[in-house]
Specification:
- This protein is mostly beta strands.
- Helices cover about 0% and strands about 55% of the residues.
- The protein is built from no helices and eleven strands.
- Strands 2, 4, 5, 6, 9, 10 and 11 form a seven-stranded mixed beta sheet that branches. A four-stranded antiparallel beta sheet has the order 1-3-8-7, with no helix packed on it.
- The protein is globular, with a radius of gyration of 13 Å.
- The mean pLDDT is about 95.
């Protein structure tokens, strides 16, 4: 079965950290660029970070401001998003996306809530 499964979300206090994981199955993972997006209540889904198939190039949204780090382990077919210094504005459902050419696959999302 071709799918992406996110995990690692949860409730964290402001200033805290979380690491999200996105496990891929049913696809040749090392051939896909991977991205993280997020969608807060009442807002559109927005880009967070991207890492190319080989892992040598990464891009981030401006609001990340050095707080988030995207990485991947192709042997484990997993993409990670390390998030530090979280704020309430980071509260959202976080989604991973795999893309290769015109093909795109989304995960189901994992909830991140930042609150005291």
């Amino acid at each position: 079965q071709v799918q992406l499964v996110e995990s690692g979300g949860g409730l964290v206090q402001p200033g805290g950290s979380l690491t999200l994981s996105c496990l891929a199955s049913g696809l040749i993972f090392n051939q896909y660029d991977m991205r993280w997006y997020r969608q807060a209540p009442g807002k559109e889904r927005e880009f967070v970070a991207r890492i190319i198939s080989g892992g040598s190039s990464k891009n981030y949204a401006d609001f990340v401001k050095g707080r988030f780090t995207i990485s991947r382990d192709n042997a484990k077919k997993t993409t990670y998003l390390q998030m530090n210094n979280l704020t309430p504005e980071d509260t959202a459902v976080y989604y991973c996306k795999a893309s290769r050419g015109g093909y795109t696959l989304w995960g189901q999302g994992t909830q991140v809530s930042v609150s005291s």
